[in-house]
Amino acid sequence: MQTIFSIAVDALAYGMVLFVISIGLSVTMGLMRVVNLAHGAFAMIGGYIASYAARDLGLGYGLAVLIAVFGTIVIAVPIERLLYRRIYGAPELTQVLMTIGITFCIIGIANYVFGPTLKTMPLPPGLRGSVDLGFRSIATHRLFAIACGLAVAVGLWYAIEKTAFGVKLRASVDNAAMAAALGVRTEIVYAVSFAVAVGLAALGGVVGAELLPVEPYYALRYMVTFLVVVSVGGAGSIPGALLACLLLGGIDTAGRYLMPEFGEFFFYLAVIAIVCVFPRGLAGRTR
Amino acid sequence: MKRTILAALAALAMSGAACADTIKIGVIGPFSGPFALQGKNFKAGIDAYMAMNGSKVGDDDIEVIYRDVPQPDPAQSKALAQELVVKEGVQYLAGFYFTPDAMAVTPLLEQANVPLVIMNAATSAIVTKSPLAVRTSFTLWQTSTPIAKVTKDAGVSKIISVVSDYGPGVDAENAFKQGFEAVGGEIVEAIRMPLSTNDFSPIMQRIKDSGAEGVFAFLPSGPTTLGFVKAFNENGLKDAGIKFFAPGDLTQESDLPALGEAALGIRTTFHYAVSHDSPENKAFVEAAAKAIGNPAELSFPAVGAYDGMHVIYKMIEATGGEQDAAKAVDAVKGLSWTSPRGPVSIDPESRHITQNIYLREVAKADDGTYYNKEIQTFEKQGDPGLAALK
Predict the structure, then answer these.
(1) Does any CB of chain A come closer than 8 Å to the CB of residue B36?
(2) Confidence at residue B17, expressed as pLDDT on a 0 to 100 scale
(3) Domains and CATH numbers, chain B
(4) ipTM greater than cut 0.85
(5) Where's the Leucine-binding protein domain (chain B) (predicted)?
(6) B236 vs A111: CB contact, 8 Å cut-off?
(7) Where is A116: in which H helix or E strand?
């Protein structure tokens, strides 16, 4: 019994970290229809900025997170205007080639500027150490990641489903020409959504840094995991992504505990099974 | 057809080399990509040696030509080695961070009349594949066997072994198992984790549930090490008094700033620590730090490369610059010298390096940086892995 609880706690923590990092990609892929392979690169930029702010400039953790999120957006906005704008609505292959190119450029720049070694971020005293849950202990920053994940899920769901901006976004996604004809400034809607998605990537990069350490190849190393989460959850669906993260986190954690020698066999077996039954993901929207 | 062309060109290269006064050394390693730091260390070690000993042996100029194999890729490694031999006319092949890359090159050596000096690749079997292969690094058997005794001496008799599921990981597991059972210890469980593991919490839970008093771990140096060590502390294993033992790959110097406090007190055995206290090492670290640019990036492949260059220089001296691979290798059999890591020699039988293995503990220096502090020396260790192969 204790073992089951223990696996459940680990699965929840791992799943939520995955969620925070992947949800931005789900937004770009599902709502903006851009296969953004550079998502991991933006998460990495966030991690680097936070690490630089906290370690080299000695700023507080909260401030470092804010600087990371907004700094990454500031870097990403010109990239959106100059590069991404050309590939909205373009065939998927064009998008993949463009974004993977951007990823390699960012890796090269990160390697040149920050060097190839691992970068860490000092945690504030409140997030260090571990909390005793009675039957086991769990790292405090994992609890923080779980809280971040829940906050992001609720916030995004509210913004997309309940606000005027969400209405415009959904309209632009479903029929850009018609939305524009009705007076929606689609390019602004796209730019804002892109900025939000990148900001979420950066937040994920920072919050998940304890699990996925920041180094130049971060951008490629975890790419497959992010894409798997989005395709299993259904691109653009927040509940779908949440469900996918918890499910995959659970399967991965249980498999790793019970039969580590099978590696990621169960993880990918589950992915294959889910994609076979739900080709558009668990909560995918039909086009 | 390909063979004859290769042979003809190799012969041509040979006749050319006899009167040439530039001797070329081809170095293959990861100079770009995720392992670029290790390639950078190769280059730093080689540059340091040439800065300290000159770029001439006798009348001959030495030229080093680098070729990049970013990830383990035997086919590419072999192709580049062929290109180096045939087109560039190199007299020596050196480098090799990954075992498969070195293995792929061994069949070429005899025909090309070129010795191979391995500066890192750490699987025992490589030197048995060709009589022209010499190794100046270490093997996992060599570094993992002494830690078994250390573990027992620390009063731990039940241990769980946790390794990454790939060649060197399995080597480390076997070496530790053999050593530990020989001193009467018990391995309660042996776990092999997939290389791509990010979240180690479930593994930590397994370790806790196994009832072991200590853990023996091996992971390739880099991002996963950090996750593993952090998970070890955060899941309360360190506080529960479970002891942590590993070969030195886990606490390589370039990872220590990131590992920081989490690694404090971890005991590892390895052939080289940048902090090693000797005049030879001081001079080496100074020259290598200058070559690499950032001293914090200096790590163990640099010393393998440095000693590899020493062996090649001795080979060139012995052959007078003529291309004669068999004579060159014979000349360094039994060669002994004082390396930055301490006294070393080339075992005439296996052509692998015999060296001291040090027990180290991660400690904090006065200036707040972390380093591997040597606390015990196991003198003149050979490679037990070769005996295990038979």
Answers:
(1) yes
(2) 47
(3) 22-138+277-351 (3.40.50.2300), 141-270+358-384 (3.40.50.2300)
(4) no
(5) 22-364
(6) no
(7) none
